[in-house]
Amino acid sequence: MTENKISFFEHDLKNSKRKELRFLPHKLLKPFIKEYMIVQCTSEMEMHLFPNPSISFNHIINGNIAMIKNDGSKVDLPKATVFGISQKHLQFSFTAQTSLLTTIVNPGFASFFIRKPIHNFSGTFLPLDYFFSRQKVLSLNQQLSNQSSYIKMLQLLEDFLISEKEPKVMDTRIKDAIHRIKEKKGLVSINDLSKEISISRDSFEKNFRANVGTTPKQYCKIIRFRSLFEEAHLQNNLTDLGLNGGYYDQSHFIRDFKSFTGVLPSDFF
Description:
The protein has 2 domains: 9-164, Sandwich (Jelly Rolls), CATH 2.60.120; 172-268, Arc Repressor Mutant, subunit A, CATH 1.10.10.60. It is built from 9 helices and 11 strands. Helices cover 36% and strands 21% of the residues.
């Protein structure tokens, strides 16, 4: 089980009960899968999904989850979905006694499982059976719902993932670019980065989007935002936090932060 400095979901209702468990993948899937997460809500609540650099596969084991649109209306999610990378925060409504099993894919590796262009659903979600056999997805969902053991759930899920993984090799230049962006907390020049990995900018952007699901520029913005949470406990004020995150204009920092989270930084920290 692992712990992250920023939760996959953040929730609004202070007194609501929620359990979030994280598990590492089997060694065969470790290069491709970052972790598995199980979220259990004993009471009804609303939660935010913040911008995340990873594509995820999601299975609603029990209960119901709806996406809350900007106008306040709700759209029920399918029992199994794939979420694309998004630069905007998304808001969800969980019913009481809802359990969600999420597979967080390592950036750049979703194309090993998905055989359709992954950038086409950036910022939204699609049913899992859009990408995989409907019969296999239904069977997996039924088996997951009938299990009470987390370990058995994960075994079923990993058997499915292993059966769907394509035997191909990732472009080392894209892998290197992802590492450099993360290492520099998103504060990189796309031109400089393409030169460092010896590829033209046009080819770099095309290959990056095909493998990661978004453009290098958008990916850098997400990484820069998430790096703020790693530095937050070291800062005495929001101005320092923004400056260390590469924002030289406080209004730009506040505007981006609200776009990413839905709230002002002063309301979040």
